[in-house]
Design goal:
There is one protein chain. The protein is α/β, with parallel strands linked by helices. It has a single domain, classed as Uracil-DNA Glycosylase, subunit E (3-Layer(aba) Sandwich). Strands 2-1-3-5-4 form a five-stranded mixed β-sheet, sandwiched between helices. A hairpin with a 7-residue loop joins strand 4 and strand 5. Helix 2 packs across helix 6. The radius of gyration is 17 Å and the shape is globular. The protein binds iron/sulfur cluster.
């Protein structure tokens, strides 16, 4: 489905999608899978959809797996402990978080932060595809295995992390895909911290290379 949409002429796609994306009301009212009703049992905690945030269009799009508790409570992607780690990685690479478009495969939080299920990813994919078409990124960074496998199931993070690969080259919207570990992994694994820092520092080099090729 993604490949089909990406093959549409760029102008056509943008015209179709501008009205549909609106202010994310489709996501706010979606009942496409059971996750919209997965209420947080803790008093005072909200269960908000997390559409994503950032400039549109945007050169860099970051795609995680699904909202966690802090994200569902605030309605914003990558906040809380792993969000702080992510912000630090972005700063160390010389970027500002506000300059990136950040979203997830799933827009609602799975119970107990379990991994996304295939049927949930399928039900939610059209939102991500709309966002890809609207954001028109040159670089897509995936965080974690599930986000990487949405695009290419052959990716093995242990050997492919931080390596850019061309994606959707025969479409009107080609981009470089860079699979990375999720920043949450660095919270529990000190060695992973250095790996993530090194991978994020490759982004400016890759962008410079893209710029020199255009
Ligand atoms: S996770 Fe996606 S498909 Fe499921 S209810 Fe939320 S927005 Fe709809």
């Amino acid at each position: 489905m993604l490949e089909d949409l990406l093959r549409l002429p760029r102008g056509t796609v943008r015209n179709i999608l501008i009205g549909e994306l609106g202010d994310n009301m489709d996501i706010a009212t979606c009942q496409g899978c059971p996750l919209y009703q997965n209420l947080d049992p803790r008093p005072g905690r909200k269960h908000l959809p997390v559409p994503g945030e950032g400039p549109v269009p945007c050169q860099i799009m970051v795609i995680g797996e699904a909202p966690g508790a802090d994200e569902a409570d605030s309605g914003r992607p990558l906040v809380g402990a792993s969000g702080k780690r992510f912000d630090m990685l972005v700063r160390q690479a010389g970027f500002r978080r506000e300059g990136l478009f950040i979203t997830n495969l799933l827009k609602h939080r799975p119970p107990k932060n379990r991994p996304p299920q295939v049927k949930e990813v399928k039900a939610c994919a059209h939102f991500l595809e709309q966002q890809l078409l609207e954001v028109q990124p040159s670089v897509v960074i995936t965080l974690g295995r599930h986000a990487a496998h949405y695009f290419d199931k052959s990716i093995q993070l242990v050997k492919d992390h931080g390596m850019a690969r061309r994606f959707a080259e025969d479409s009107g919207l080609p981009f470089l895909l860079i699979p990375m570990y999720h920043p949450a992994a660095a919270l529990y694994n000190g060695g992973m911290r250095e790996t993530l820092i090194e991978d994020f520092k490759k982004i400016p080099v890759i962008l410079k290379k893209i710029g020199s090729e255009n």
